[in-house]
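Homework help board

Subject: predicted structure for assignment chain

Our instructor gave us this sequence and asked us to write out the predicted structure in token form, then describe one feature. I got the tokens but I'm not sure how to describe them. Can anyone check?
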Amino acid sequence: MSRMPHTPPVPPENGREEPGFPFFRVYLLCTPERVPLLPGLPAFDPNRIRVIDPRSLTSDLFVDAVNAVVSGDPKPVPRWALYDCAETTGVVVGCLDHRGLPVSLLAATPTTVEGEWHTFTLRAHDPGLAIRTARLMVDLTRPRAVTAVSPYRGGSIDVFTMLGRVMLVTAYTPAHSEPMSATIRVHPGEERPTGGEVLTVDTRREEALRRLQDEIESGDRYDIAAGPGIDGLLSVEKTDAPSRGDA
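My token output:
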């Protein structure tokens, strides 16, 4: 496997970063026929992108390195899940360090609704890099909406709130292997409406999550105002305002 030569990081001009973030190179694990379907790709510097075909024999060592990013997880995502659910149907994106090794990843696949993507397995070596990687996915796919499932403990809800408005689809998710997880719908670039009733939910208590889920199933809608901190407290705000993307 060839390694990319070391290039010193280039500071952003005027304090702003172009798509792809010049401090890091970008990799895409994606089949060649799907690469042109990424609408934001033309905005990226091609010299800073490495595309790996997951169906090629030469991808083996690189995929090993990608999976090493999640190897420390208590329940690391299996290789087949990334391959079946993202690499051949959508894309796995992430950042490369100066040695050409992956230091983050986010899997994304398009849904049957045009302009909508489902993401999973956001992992990074540090929180700032996680935010960069999520924004990288948005820059590449230019989605109308993004869905994700995130556990409350050690999840990525806070990262997604930095992308735009986050609507709570499920507060308790019994069909998932981790029922105490939230299904969220993110509308990148959209501000969260305010003025509704704000609730604080202890995500460590199953009964509290089930109670909130009952309210959602009864027709109430909530936006996430703040993700759960180390105390496990989630702040949600009741809303009647539809998203621009859903209008």
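Reply (TA_rk): Your tokens look well-formed. For the description, you could write something like this. Residues 1-18 have pLDDT under 50 and may be disordered. That's the kind of observation they're looking for.
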